[in-house]
Amino acid sequence: MPTETTPRLELRSITKAFPGVLANDQVDLTVMPGEIHALLGENGAGKSTLVKIISGVLHADSGDLLWQGEPVTIPNPKAARALGIGMVFQHFSLFEALTVAENIELGMDHSGNRRTLEARIEEMATKYGLPLEPRRHVHTLSVGEKQRIEIIRALLLNPKLLIMDEPTSVLTPQEAETLFKTLRQLAREGVSILFISHKLGEIKALCHTATILRGGRFITSCNPAEESPKSMAEMMIGERLTPPERSDTDHSGVGRLVISNLSAPAESQFGVKLDAIDLTVRGGEIVGIAGVSGNGQSELMAHLTGERLAPSASMISIDGVAVGRKGPSDRRDMTAAFVPEERMGHAAVPDMTLVDNALLTSHRRNGFTLRGFINRLKSEGYAQIVCDAFRVKHRGIRHAAGHLSGGNLQKFVIGREIEHTPSLLVANQPTWGVDSGAAASIQQALIDLAQGDSAVLVISQDLDELLTISDRIAVLHDGRLSQARPTGDFTIEDIGLAMTGHEMADNTGPSEQNNTRSAT
Amino acid sequence: MISVDIVVLTIVSIIGATTPLLIAATGELVTEKSGVLNLGVEGMMLMGAVSGVGATIATDSWILGLLCAAAVGMAFSLLFGFLTLTLMANQVASGLALTIFGAGLSAVIGAPLVGKRVHRIPDLEIAGLTDLPIIGPIFFGHDPLVYFSLISLAAVSWFLFRTRAGLALRAVGESHDSAHAIGYRVIRIRYAAVAFGGMMAGLGGAYLSLAATSLWAEGMTAGRGWIALALIVFAAWRPLRLLLGAYLFGIFWIGQLAVQGLGLPIATEFMGALPYLVTIIVLVIISRDSTKFLLDAPACIGKAFHPTA
């Protein structure tokens, strides 16, 4: 198959404009049969628009689309599916109130009856190592599990071209490796794969070709195997990349966040119960919590922010004060800050302006409000400072937060907390779905914050990130948190195994545990 | 002592009071499941009631009367659909306008009909069954619309939860952006759902003028359209609960009349308010488990869909 010379898909000078933005400017793209083709670019480079044009969601203003050598028009997603174009969306196109099986059925044109479909889902799930229960409701699933639905939905269509928008951002290294095996297998069977990811190491290992977009324009094509992640990142952002840097600091500071024996029952039948969690985060250090989503991350986060109250006050203390029974505002009053996982609708209100969103988490500080009245000038100034300091690309601070791209909104919600220099910052998945440039600047900001003697707790599925920024790492699995150990004690494989439920003791002898004790 | 006959008569009148609510609410359930909130039920019911009487008088056929009521209800709802789905006007405001417009227009059209009697829709007589004591009048002696209300609710329930088209309709109500991304035609599906809701509201209204009574009176729906809307929230968008809720309302409705008739020392205003009070209490109770409640409520209800994104 790879010897065929007719491209599976060819785009010729595709142009698409939105009011005020040229999202795609004469973009060319050629994907061969059996090729794994990376599409690279920062957030806002036009990848999503291009992909939507290929999948029939959007229509190009001009340019040609050739499918296996034939010019085609793809008026809607159904037509794309009929051609054999499968799509795994970045922003999940899922229905929260429906079951897994119903969601998958909706994305298929010939699904057969529900029972056979459920059987096929389970078969696919086992085959590709993507465990999924067809009858669960989507709203009870974690982000990672939701992504599995998208992947299985696309695979059930037997696609000729599979478009994957950041498929690995929520997977463990082992899971990602399993997925890569699947993708390589599919590629050998002649399926073309258009792969979008911010993890350049992955692209180097997996992809045959890479096309790089910047500012809506085609920049270059390259062979990822011959490039380094850094060189590809620099092609994407068009300037030199500075990876986050940290100097070793003294971590013997006081415990600013102390979680002691935090247990909490599961909130619903699909929730995760927290089981005797112990953790101390000192001023000046970054502690990372690794784990596959759906293992208690959201529950732990909710208890730390105060959205859910701990069974007893003493289970969580901030700066020596027991806050387990206090709500988010009281905790924020103690200069703690929180960045939840979901940018839209949880961290930020999409329909409100950046100014209002900045005000929402800081209205009790810095004199932004006085006797119940908002100090407009001050809050606008603050939003502007956050945008400038974190280089948030925006159309004006009075525009709705929902208009920002994912990476820019993430920089904004992290920036609005960090600019206050909180004594404690808890961030859940701070760089999820964020491009490498933005991720590096967010990580740098977290490191800088910790170096100013703040305590930083980062919950993340991105192990590279945790290994880069954390002083100590603990692994969360099934509501239980392992002991936090110095980052140097871990390899990616160690953590990956722990994330999938293998006891840490299996691959770390007693001697290492002693090590940890002496180090902590 | 209350005789058996009075009990039977009460049950029969409860069924009569419930049927128009159930028909209108079944239609609105479909509309709301697709993510559209049409507050114009009261107006559409009034238009159905008046056009049902008008057409029955003109053609001397209650079947044509019902068909006309259904068509008028549908046409009226499509007006709402055009405003909210095509022109993307606010659904709440448009729905309220539809109710006010329907009340006014039905009064104007109906003015010459006031005081004219039509033949009531005849009750079904099933040989051998209708004559049975107690069971006969309760189960087998009603007009065809009573059975229609039950069958249509069952059919809607089957459609929504057992068919692919029903799944698509719920998907559109759940997340129109996702549905659009997968390739469903959000606006078209919503138009169909709105039209069905209008048709059923028209029939519900015609039940009042052609079966419950046999005449047209201005404002004769007396708030039943609003009760139908409340019922859906009460039922948390579930068909079986909708059936139970509708009959509960029917019981209160008749109970309120009975209290008035018997001169019991309970304020009639209190009895009249009771159904609404119960709605509020039930809402509080079911909202306690917010995740469960949110699961049932169509997430996109009342939101305009902009297909550009």
How do the helices and strands line up, and which of them pair or pack?
The complex is a heterodimer of chains A (520) and B (309).
Chain A: E1 9-18, E2 21-31, E3 36-40, H1 47-54, E4 62-67, E5 70-71, H2 77-83, E6 85-88, H3 100-106, H4 114-127, H5 143-155, E7 161-165, H6 173-188, E8 192-196, H7 200-206, E9 209-214, E10 217-222, H8 229-237, E11 255-264, E12 274-282, E13 286-290, H9 297-305, E14 316-318, E15 321-322, H10 328-333, E16 336-339, H11 354-360, E17 369-370, E18 373-374, H12 376-389, H13 406-418, E19 424-428, H14 436-451, E20 455-459, H15 463-469, E21 472-477, E22 480-481, E23 485-486, H16 492-499, H17 504-507, H18 510-519
Parallel strand pairs in A: 3-8, 3-9, 6-7, 7-8, 13-20, 13-21, 16-19, 19-20
Antiparallel strand pairs in A: 1-2, 1-4, 4-5, 9-10, 11-12, 11-14, 14-15, 17-18, 21-22, 21-23
Chain B: H1 4-33, H2 41-59, H3 62-86, H4 91-110, H5 135-140, H6 144-162, H7 164-174, H8 176-182, H9 186-212, H10 224-234, H11 239-262, H12 268-287, H13 290-296
Helix pairs in contact in B: 1-6, 1-9, 1-10, 1-11, 2-3, 2-4, 2-9, 2-10, 3-4, 3-9, 6-7, 7-8, 10-11, 10-12, 11-12
